[in-house]
Write a sequence for this structure.
Protein backbone atom coordinates (compact mmCIF):
# COMPACT_ATOMS: atom_id res chain seq x y z
CA UNK A 1 0.00 0.00 0.00
CA UNK A 2 1.30 3.42 -0.95
CA UNK A 3 1.31 6.04 1.79
CA UNK A 4 0.06 9.49 0.79
CA UNK A 5 2.35 12.40 1.55
CA UNK A 6 0.46 15.15 3.36
CA UNK A 7 1.88 18.62 3.03
CA UNK A 8 0.92 21.91 4.64
CA UNK A 9 -0.69 22.95 1.36
CA UNK A 10 -2.94 19.87 1.52
CA UNK A 11 -3.97 20.66 5.08
CA UNK A 12 -4.50 24.37 4.36
CA UNK A 13 -6.68 23.71 1.32
CA UNK A 14 -10.33 23.57 2.48
CA UNK A 15 -11.32 21.44 -0.52
CA UNK A 16 -9.11 18.51 0.52
CA UNK A 17 -10.36 15.95 2.98
CA UNK A 18 -7.80 15.43 5.69
CA UNK A 19 -8.63 12.83 8.32
CA UNK A 20 -11.91 11.19 9.27
CA UNK A 21 -14.49 13.87 10.08
CA UNK A 22 -16.90 11.49 11.83
CA UNK A 23 -14.21 9.99 14.06
CA UNK A 24 -12.80 13.42 14.87
CA UNK A 25 -16.21 14.74 15.87
CA UNK A 26 -16.84 11.69 18.04
CA UNK A 27 -13.42 12.15 19.66
CA UNK A 28 -14.13 15.86 20.32
CA UNK A 29 -17.55 15.18 21.86
CA UNK A 30 -16.26 12.26 23.93
CA UNK A 31 -13.42 14.38 25.30
CA UNK A 32 -15.83 17.18 26.31
CA UNK A 33 -18.45 14.87 27.83
CA UNK A 34 -15.93 12.86 29.86
CA UNK A 35 -14.32 16.11 31.00
CA UNK A 36 -17.70 17.38 32.17
CA UNK A 37 -18.43 14.16 34.06
CA UNK A 38 -14.98 14.35 35.65
CA UNK A 39 -15.75 17.84 36.96
CA UNK A 40 -19.11 16.68 38.35
CA UNK A 41 -17.66 13.59 40.02
CA UNK A 42 -14.76 15.64 41.41
CA UNK A 43 -17.10 16.95 44.11
CA UNK A 44 -17.75 13.39 45.29
CA UNK A 45 -14.04 12.58 45.19
CA UNK A 46 -13.21 15.68 47.24
CA UNK A 47 -15.90 14.74 49.77
CA UNK A 48 -14.41 11.25 50.12
CA UNK A 49 -10.84 12.55 50.46
CA UNK A 50 -11.80 15.13 53.10
CA UNK A 51 -14.00 12.63 54.94
CA UNK A 52 -11.22 10.04 55.07
CA UNK A 53 -8.40 12.38 56.11
CA UNK A 54 -6.61 10.78 59.03
CA UNK A 55 -8.80 7.67 59.11
CA UNK A 56 -7.58 4.09 59.17
CA UNK A 57 -8.26 1.30 56.65
CA UNK A 58 -11.43 0.09 58.35
CA UNK A 59 -13.01 3.54 58.02
CA UNK A 60 -12.01 3.72 54.35
CA UNK A 61 -13.58 0.32 53.64
CA UNK A 62 -16.70 1.26 55.63
CA UNK A 63 -17.21 4.46 53.63
CA UNK A 64 -16.51 2.86 50.24
CA UNK A 65 -18.81 -0.06 51.07
CA UNK A 66 -21.79 2.29 50.77
CA UNK A 67 -23.18 1.78 47.26
CA UNK A 68 -23.98 5.47 46.87
CA UNK A 69 -20.29 6.29 47.39
CA UNK A 70 -18.56 3.28 45.83
CA UNK A 71 -20.52 2.93 42.60
CA UNK A 72 -20.07 6.59 41.54
CA UNK A 73 -16.35 6.33 42.37
CA UNK A 74 -16.08 3.24 40.16
CA UNK A 75 -17.87 5.13 37.37
CA UNK A 76 -15.47 8.06 37.90
CA UNK A 77 -12.48 5.74 37.48
CA UNK A 78 -13.90 4.31 34.24
CA UNK A 79 -14.75 7.75 32.82
CA UNK A 80 -11.33 9.11 33.80
CA UNK A 81 -9.70 6.19 31.98
CA UNK A 82 -11.65 7.01 28.79
CA UNK A 83 -10.67 10.67 29.16
CA UNK A 84 -7.03 9.67 29.73
CA UNK A 85 -7.04 7.48 26.61
CA UNK A 86 -8.43 10.30 24.47
CA UNK A 87 -5.93 12.80 25.86
CA UNK A 88 -2.99 10.51 25.16
CA UNK A 89 -4.39 9.85 21.69
CA UNK A 90 -4.01 13.57 20.89
CA UNK A 91 -0.38 13.50 21.95
CA UNK A 92 0.36 10.28 20.07
CA UNK A 93 -1.25 11.65 16.88
CA UNK A 94 1.02 14.69 17.04
CA UNK A 95 4.33 12.92 17.58
CA UNK A 96 4.07 9.41 16.12
CA UNK A 97 3.26 8.11 12.66
CA UNK A 98 2.88 4.81 10.85
CA UNK A 99 3.27 1.49 12.60
CA UNK A 100 4.80 2.97 15.74
CA UNK A 101 1.63 5.07 16.12
CA UNK A 102 -0.55 1.97 15.82
CA UNK A 103 1.56 0.15 18.41
CA UNK A 104 1.53 3.13 20.78
CA UNK A 105 -2.26 3.50 20.45
CA UNK A 106 -2.75 -0.20 21.15
CA UNK A 107 -0.54 0.02 24.25
CA UNK A 108 -2.34 3.20 25.32
CA UNK A 109 -5.72 1.51 24.97
CA UNK A 110 -4.58 -1.60 26.85
CA UNK A 111 -3.08 0.47 29.66
CA UNK A 112 -6.22 2.59 30.06
CA UNK A 113 -8.39 -0.53 29.93
CA UNK A 114 -6.25 -2.15 32.65
CA UNK A 115 -6.46 0.98 34.82
CA UNK A 116 -10.24 1.10 34.43
CA UNK A 117 -10.76 -2.61 35.11
CA UNK A 118 -8.43 -2.83 38.10
CA UNK A 119 -9.53 0.49 39.64
CA UNK A 120 -13.26 0.16 39.14
CA UNK A 121 -13.14 -3.56 39.91
CA UNK A 122 -11.35 -2.93 43.19
CA UNK A 123 -13.87 -0.34 44.31
CA UNK A 124 -16.82 -2.52 43.23
CA UNK A 125 -15.34 -5.48 45.12
CA UNK A 126 -15.37 -3.39 48.29
CA UNK A 127 -18.93 -2.24 47.59
CA UNK A 128 -20.44 -5.64 46.89
CA UNK A 129 -18.20 -8.11 48.73
CA UNK A 130 -16.65 -6.08 51.51
Amino acid sequence: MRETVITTQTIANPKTHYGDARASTRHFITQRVTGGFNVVFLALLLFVVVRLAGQDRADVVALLANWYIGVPLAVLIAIAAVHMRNGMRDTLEDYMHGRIYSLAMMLNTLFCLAVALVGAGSVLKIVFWG
Remarks:
- The radius of gyration is 20 Å.
- The chain has five helices and no strands.
